[in-house]
């Protein structure tokens, strides 16, 4: 029988999977690096005013621990629906002696279990396949509730799953985005993207956030680039785990998925492989 947390879980992959944990650890590091740092997009004045920070769907806790290291005088909390992820993050915090970092098991599909005006910054990255499209507006409203006046909501979301010259990769990501649409993620009307980056600024303004700013991130991971191996390893695990999701959504058979996966990994190793990915960070201020 499913427990309460399992029923509330809307993540497209298994949040208790050790393989997914390993992928998320690397993804945390990659994301922070490619964004330009832990607090990229915030001004020195913004950072100086931080006392309490919340990271939503924190996974194994990489961003929380990095933020706690950079600002040891600030309390940084991460929440995630996965008990395994949270326990691992707590162990990392103890090992690294990050006394200002803490973690809780919590579903972001419900009202957030925090008092009004509890935080100065709420951060979230890559919720694209963690919550359904219908959950975005109430979640942003909840973020406004728990932020103090002058507090900041910082969201970073992908536009796509990568654009390449690999036929197999393009087929894999096309199926992935179609599966996301069928499952109710994002706001895409045709399944060609996550359908998030053009919608989030308006949802933030509707919830009362002001001075909504955006910063685009474009990363090339073609063959021969310094980041190719990081991206290859991320897709190697992500695409493997995502096969079950594609099959569940009725888009492909197990045999077809296995063959497509092998061909995708092969083509990513070609010297002629060319690739780029796109994401956007949004920062909005509570009046």
TrEMBL record:
Pfam families: Methyltransf_25. One of its GO terms (molecular function) is methyltransferase activity. Residues 53-151 form the Methyltransferase domain. InterPro entries: Methyltransf_25, SAM-dependent_MTases_sf. PANTHER family: 2-METHOXY-6-POLYPRENYL-1,4-BENZOQUINOL METHYLASE, MITOCHONDRIAL (PTHR43591:SF24), METHYLTRANSFERASE (PTHR43591). This is Methyltransferase domain-containing protein.
